[in-house]
């Protein structure tokens, strides 16, 4: 069992898993699109610890559990690898607008979903749709069928509604992120999240990352069920 501990960064690798866990020293990274590296360099001095540790793991296609407090830069930690891959043309380009996203991020609240969607819209090449409840479904449905969607940033309830009415199909999801997993569970989204994941390609055909500020047993159990040999990265005094 490999275990690495330094500066209150804890990385845990599943037994027998062969992966390079060296954190990035800067934004420069072979797999990243130049434009995104420049964007980060122009805005920030250096990667935050959660970014430095999780970027290489996600780029190596590993499932990851990232535990770090609020404000530690988790959005770019999970979004930048996907944005990079899509910018570099490493994904197939849709021939026509398609309501079958390759990237789905679930977040507990509309505000959080909107914050993630804003970052993705600023930096992405393909359509980003933010899907949340409390507003009529019409505009969201219209956008899905009109513009299509590559990155769907969702609250679980509304995502389920749109999937159930077949406005959105989850069979093309390659990269799933459960953001603020602890809060999603606290808010009672567990059954909805499980049902939605059941409609996606199976673990192994899909990369899954989970981000959370805390790591209670319920979040651990969710990770065990839906992530495949995840590497755990904990920043600060979480365990
Ligand atoms: P979290 O999801 O962990 O709560 P966010 O992703 O919302 O954190 O980021 C919090 C703030 O930190 C945002 O304003 C974001 O632009 C900023 N940020 C992201 N990456 C960095 C970085 N490498 N250095 C400094 N600030 C950053
Ligand atoms: Mg966040």
TrEMBL record:
Localization of this protein: Nucleus, Nucleolus
Signal peptide: none
Residue ranges annotated for the Helicase ATP-binding domain, each copy included: 55-233
Function per UniProt: ATP-dependent RNA helicase required for 60S ribosomal subunit synthesis. Involved in efficient pre-rRNA processing, predominantly at site A3, which is necessary for the normal formation of 25S and 5.8S rRNAs.
Family assignment from sequence similarity: Belongs to the DEAD box helicase family. DDX5/DBP2 subfamily.
UniProt name for this protein: RNA helicase
Protein source organism: Effrenium voratum
């Amino acid at each position: 069992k490999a275990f690495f501990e330094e500066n209150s960064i804890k990385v845990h690798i599943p037994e027998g898993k062969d992966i390079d866990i060296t954190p990035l020293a800067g934004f420069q990274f072979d797999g990243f699109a130049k434009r995104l590296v420049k964007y980060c360099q122009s805005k920030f001095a250096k990667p935050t610890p959660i970014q430095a540790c999780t970027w290489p793991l996600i780029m190596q296609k590993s499932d990851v559990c990232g535990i770090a407090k609020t404000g530690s830069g988790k959005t770019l930690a999970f979004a930048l690898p996907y944005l990079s891959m899509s910018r570099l043309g490493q994904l197939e380009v849709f021939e026509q607008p398609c309501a079958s996203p390759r990237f789905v991020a679930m977040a507990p609240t509309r505000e959080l979903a909107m914050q993630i969607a804003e970052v993705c819209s600023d930096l992405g090449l393909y359509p980003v749709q933010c899907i949340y409840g409390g507003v009529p479904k019409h505009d969201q449905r219209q956008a899905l069928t009109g513009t299509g969607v590559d990155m769907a940033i969702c609250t679980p309830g509304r995502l389920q509604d749109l999937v159930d009415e077949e406005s959105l199909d989850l069979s093309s999801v390659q990269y799933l992120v459960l953001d603020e997993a602890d809060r999603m569970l606290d808010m009672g989204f567990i059954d909805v999240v499980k049902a939605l994941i059941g409609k996606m390609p199976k673990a192994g055909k899909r990369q899954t990352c989970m981000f959370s500020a805390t790591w209670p047993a319920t979040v651990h159990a969710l990770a065990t069920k839906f992530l495949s040999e995840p590497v755990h990265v904990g920043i600060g005094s979480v365990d």
